[in-house]
Specification:
alpha+beta, 3-stranded antiparallel sheet, 6 helices, 71% helix, elongated
């Protein structure tokens, strides 16, 4: 009698521990990859939404920037590029700044810095009021 032979056939087949761990690691990597892809898709969509908002509300977004601190034109241009991923041309920026100034949403002062005179833009009380009203209205419409 070979009891060992019978035992062999009655045993349940176990996956070697190292193979089980590899399968588990592969499943985790797959899950992580799916999550990373989802995050990428979400980030791209957010970027598209922000750019769309900026294109439609460029004046409001500039008021939003100026609410944080006074800036000169070049700095506004760089902030727009950094924060919103949009390259704002001088030919679009300065006419818009002039329009906002005529509407009294912003005011400008001239400051000398390193031998150069810069026109620094500041948001006015009217600009802050308008910005807050826009934000409130958009928030209400999205609820």
């Amino acid at each position: 009698m070979h009891h060992q032979g019978i035992k062999k056939h009655n045993k349940t087949q176990n996956i070697p521990k190292h193979r089980y761990n590899l399968n588990k690691q592969n499943q985790q990597k797959t899950t992580e990859n799916k999550m990373q892809k989802q995050q990428k898709i979400e980030n791209n969509l957010k970027q598209q939404i922000v750019q769309r908002i900026f294109r439609n509300f460029t004046d409001i977004m500039i008021l939003r920037l100026l609410k944080t601190e006074p800036m000169w034109g070049y700095k506004i241009k760089k902030q727009v590029q950094t924060k919103y991923g949009i390259k704002l041309r001088h030919g679009a920026l300065y006419p818009l700044l002039n329009k906002l100034e005529k509407q009294r949403y912003i005011k400008s002062t001239k400051q000398q810095k390193g031998g150069r005179i810069r026109k620094v833009y500041h948001i006015t009380q009217k600009g802050i009021f308008t910005l807050n009203l826009y934000q409130q209205t958009i928030k209400e419409q999205l609820q």
